[in-house]
Design brief:
heterodimer; A: mainly alpha; 5 helices; B: alpha/beta
Chain lengths: 147, 175
């Protein structure tokens, strides 16, 4: 019985090994931090709705290795992204750059919002005008009644 | 103007935009490499680790770079098209890039399904693939005499795609 109790007590001290989100290959925390920051902003080309950081696809693992190597080689964040863009296009960036082909993408939501506001203002003005006329008519009716 | 005209026009426009969107392929990633010099590489050959292939060897030629692997199912679908093309009289050289494969598996695969390649380069760790922006094997690049990438086929080359997209361009580049 004693050994069972000892075994159970021992079990209490075992902590589950939690997997770290991005298994750090490099021990340098500064590199890891920069790596995670960049990889969150890059799209995995195989599973297109996943970021590079979140993907475990074969190509994503290779690209992560490549990004780590570039950071270790002293490249800036912009240079690392440039490396991937020259190979895979703007598609790898979750935040596409502002240029003629992406004007609509960036300005579209704001343009739609402006159109919406304009329509709302027009509608409200019209309604007010109608209400005003009615109210006046009511008042007039009352005056007529009073008379 | 009827009061339904404006909403109807807006709705029709929305449907038109969405209809066009449905015909596009969301997985097609336009390659930024079209028109750019093909990235240089020098790696060992698949058939002989002591021999090397360099892109410089192909200078002055129109050629195809076909990325393949023995583990790639779609490559098997494409392979007969390449084998048949390589036998045709006006065929340009096809260089294979054996991508992230094992040497023995790659050689066995060629022995079994036929070898349309002048030679295959061996890209074990996928570094050359990254330089070419490979994201889904098979991929094929058409490279001109000046060493520029003129066309990229992502996914298997079908007989129709070869006939329609690649052969006319090869003819033009060879002129």
């Amino acid at each position: 019985m004693k050994w069972l109790l000892a075994a159970l007590t021992a079990l209490c001290f075992i902590q589950p090994a939690l997997p770290s989100p991005a298994a750090p290959l490099a021990e340098d925390p500064v590199i890891e931090q920069r790596f995670n920051h960049i990889a969150e902003e890059l799209r995995c080309l195989v599973c297109q709705n996943e970021s590079l950081a979140g993907s475990r696809a074969e190509l994503a693992m290779d690209l992560k290795r490549e990004v780590r190597d570039l950071i270790k080689a002293g490249k800036t964040d912009a240079q690392v992204k440039e490396f991937l863009v020259t190979r895979y296009g703007d598609f790898v960036l979750y935040r596409p750059p502002l240029k003629p082909t992406t004007y609509l993408l960036w300005a579209g939501p704001f343009a739609l919002q402006l159109v919406g506001i304009a329509l709302l203002v027009r509608y409200l003005r019209r309604r007010n005008r109608k209400d005003g006329r009615k109210a006046l008519n009511e008042a007039e009716k009352e005056r007529v009644d009073a008379l | 103007m009827n009061k339904f005209t404006l909403p109807l026009v807006a709705f029709t426009a929305l449907v038109a935009v969405l209809a066009v969107g449905l015909t596009l392929n969301p997985r097609a990633v336009p390659s930024p490499l079209i028109g750019k010099p093909a990235p240089d590489f020098k790696v060992a050959r698949l058939d002989d680790p002591n021999l090397e292939f360099s892109t410089g060897d192909m200078a002055g030629k129109v050629w195809l770079l076909n990325v393949w692997a023995s583990w790639c199912v779609a490559c098997r679908e494409e392979h007969p098209v390449l084998v048949a093309y390589a036998k045709s009289e006006s065929a340009v050289p096809i260089i294979g890039l054996n991508y992230k494969d094992k040497r023995d598996d790659g050689l066995l695969w060629l022995a079994r399904y036929g070898n349309p390649y002048q030679l295959s380069a061996f890209d074990a760790d996928g570094r050359v693939g990254i330089d070419y922006g490979v994201y889904g094997v098979p991929e094929t690049y058409l490279i001109d005499k000046a060493g520029r990438i003129r066309f990229k086929q992502t996914g298997p080359i079908t007989a129709a795609a070869l006939e329609k997209n690649i052969l006319p361009l090869i003819k033009e580049l060879n002129r």
